[in-house]
């Protein structure tokens, strides 16, 4: 590989994620949820807590009681050891009556 042409993975990933965010913002309302959900799933894999929070927020604006989104965001915070946020999500789920079906994993780590 030529010197100077190789970009660090993190820079490339950050650029791609930002381009994806711009794309999702520009598409129709129905498709948006799938775009944000895909981005949320990528945040689990790449341990991106902040972008995961933003993605989950957008999904939950469209699908208020989506149990998978709540569970994935809870897992992102738990992996980052942000226990206060984990407790907050659990309280929010309880308040909204959102329950994750037992024995089903929504996230792949």
From TrEMBL:
PPR repeats lie at residues 66-100. InterPro entries: E_motif, PPR_At4g14850-like_plant, PPR_rpt. GO terms for molecular function: RNA binding. Pfam families: E_motif. GO terms for biological process: RNA modification. This is Pentatricopeptide repeat-containing protein.
